[in-house]
Amino acid sequence: MLYEGQDLLKLSYKEMRAIRGNEIAMIFQEPMTSLNPVFTIGMQIIETLRTHNPEMTKQEAFDRAVLRLSQVKIPDAEKRMKDYPHQFSGGMRQRVMIAMALCCNPKLLIADEPTTALDVTTQAQILNLMLELRERREGGSIILITHDLAVVAETCQRVIVMYGGKIQEVGNVDQIFYEPRHPYTQGLLESLPSTQEAKKRLHTIPGNVPFIMDLPTGCKFCTRCDQVMDRCHNEEPPLHQLKSGQLVRCHLAEEDSTGFADAPAMTNVTPP
Amino acid sequence: MSKPLLEIKNLKIGYPVWGGILRHKIGEVKAVDDVSFTLHEGETLGLVGESGCGKSTLAKAVINILKATVPGVRQEGEILFHTEKGPVNLLELSRREMQPRRSEIQMIFQDPFSSLNPRMTVGSMIEAPLRLHTAQTKKERTDRVHWLLERVGLQASQASRYPHEFSGGQRQRIGIARALAVNPRLIVADEPVSALDVSVQAQVVNLLQDLQDEFNLTYLFVAHDLSVVNHISDRIAVMYLGNLIELGEANTVYGQPAHPYSRALISAVPSPDPRKDHSDRVLLEGEIPTPLDKPTGCAFRTRCPIVKDECAASTPPLEQKKSGQVAACPYT
Questions:
Q1: Residue B86: beta bridge partners?
Q2: pLDDT at A199
Q3: How far is CA B26 from the centre of its chain?
Q4: Which of B199, B207, B211, B229 to mutate to test the interface with A (most CBs of A within 10 A)?
Q5: Considering only CA atoms, which of A179, A6, A203 is closest in space to residue A108?
Q6: Which of A206, B84, B122, B228 is the most exposed place for a label (fewest CB within 10 A)?
Q7: What are phi and psi of B152, to 5 degrees?
Q8: Cα A263 to Cα A240: distance, rounded to the nearest angstrom
Q9: Which residues in chain A touch residue B164, judged by CB atoms under 8 angstroms apart?
């Protein structure tokens, strides 16, 4: 797993600790359980700052923390430094998490279902905030993990679709939504209510996601695929690379394949 | 328009707030504040709103479990349920009088993991309402349980299994089978698909629609996912901080929302179309006030993009709009 050329899996605890929070930061799905309930949020942000910038004084760290909180639009930021997580609403807690994650100017932000636990109007505010912050941080990247395809369509440039522990399709957002090549991606898009005529039966993917211990041999999706062939049960498809740059782990893509891709980093998929 | 099944008239529900050294009632949260609407036989009414709007409280009031679960709750107004013998106000019924009504009004819950008893087999959970409400023999009940399991897409042989052996979607189907067991006329579905993956949501939504057609069911469908609500509902009702602020045909409310809050809510819904233009999205300022701190006059005035001085004076009533729905705002 290469970050800026370094294999993260081979780093020592100390080396990884220097990167975690500082260069690679994460925001989690449930802000209530990922913020420490017994410390004020001020203390939690300051802790992150001073761990990675040991030369920073307490006052400098305090000021920087207040700045970050106001950047995520927390009103009365200075006063609220003394508040505990339970004194914030869900949307506010998520903003605090974002402030904490961004306080060390990470190059990579991983956001795991950042808005799933939030109301729709709050979600719109948080996504808008994340996009604004991305624009201001030149060179900062975000990996957004979500099951909500609509959120992906609105915020992402490139999309990786996973199933059964494997990458099944990669493409830029237009390709994934307008020309999906993997039957699983196609099935997901077709089963969304907003793409269908209201009140008609929704298209479904039959069956259930198999238990992790019970994944099929061959293609992981073969037990639910409406375009399955005999070969799929025995032979797991490689990740084919198409001329458009899309990657598809499906035998049906074989005829358009221009080669195999081991990892998304080796593709020519460019954002639109 | 078919016959009314449930009429909610000026419903007010207050949750007590306890405090002080002796834990007496020091205040009240107006969870539902003067709400009225009618549910017709065979229709699906989608009830939407965000945190603190009162939709779950309203759902629980309809199945009449608040007195038993919230000590000190205050319920005013009427919930008229139309039986063969005429309309009956559920809020005035004693526990014994309510019992036979319970076979007519059933509920499907949000969390497929906590709404099933982990220590009971699936079969016995579905059988329980039959034992309570019917005089069927054991054989008749067993046959019915098997029939129900198959009807919701599971297998009769799974009746002896425990909930933890099923996936979320399957557990939701079990909940549906249980609700269907005694042939209810009204099913209150409280966020029945929110906890499910997209592909499983579609299966359960289809099932609910099929069952509605087959058994002439009426649904009160409480949800926050507007695209699912728009798909399944005939009409949509929007709530904010305890008030009903918009009600109309689903297409109209979703496509041409009249109330400023509905407009913000519907424009906030992300759409799975990367080419869609969102520049006209209404982004609200601030957070939803807590129901403890409900603004006087129009509850939405603290965040409304078109607020005027008059909005603080009194709560606006629902007005008929040209596009067909009613909405509680005189300025749109």
A1: B83
A2: 64
A3: 29
A4: B199
A5: A6
A6: B84
A7: -90, 10
A8: 11
A9: none
Residue A196, judged by CB atoms within 10 A of its CB (0-12, 13-18, 19+), counts as: middle
CA Rg value for chain B: 21
CB distance B161 to B79 below 8 Å: no
Q: Average model confidence (pLDDT) for chain B? A: 91
What count of other Cβ atoms lies within 10 Å of the Cβ of residue A6?
A: 12
Tokens at residue A265, please? 């980093």
Of A75, A119, A147, the CB nearest to B198: A147
State whether residue B308 is helix, strand or coil: coil
Q: Which residues in A lie closer than 8 A to residue B213 (C-beta atoms)?
A: none
pLDDT of B210: 94
Q: Which residues of B touch A204 (CB under 8 A)?
A: 199, 202-203, 206
ipTM: 0.78
Distances B3 to B84, B186, B237, B320 between C-alpha atoms, Å: 12, 13, 19, 22
Q: Using one digit for the tens of pLDDT, what is the confidence trace for B142-196? A: 999 999 999 999 999 999 999 999 988 899 999 999 999 999 999 999 888 887 8
pLDDT digits (tens, 9 = 90+) for B224-279: 888 889 999 999 999 999 999 999 999 999 999 999 999 999 999 888 899 888 87
Write down the pTM of the prediction. Answer: 0.85
List Cα–Cα distances, A199 to A194, A196, A228, B208, in angstroms.
Answer: 11, 8, 29, 11
What are the pLDDT digits (tens) for B82-119?
998 899 999 999 989 999 899 999 999 888 788 899 99
* Chain segment B110-142, per-residue pLDDT in tens: 887 888 999 999 999 999 999 999 999 999 999
Q: What angle do CA A123, B304, B316 make, to 5 degrees?
A: 125
Helices (H), B49-137: 55-62, 66-69, 95-98, 122-133
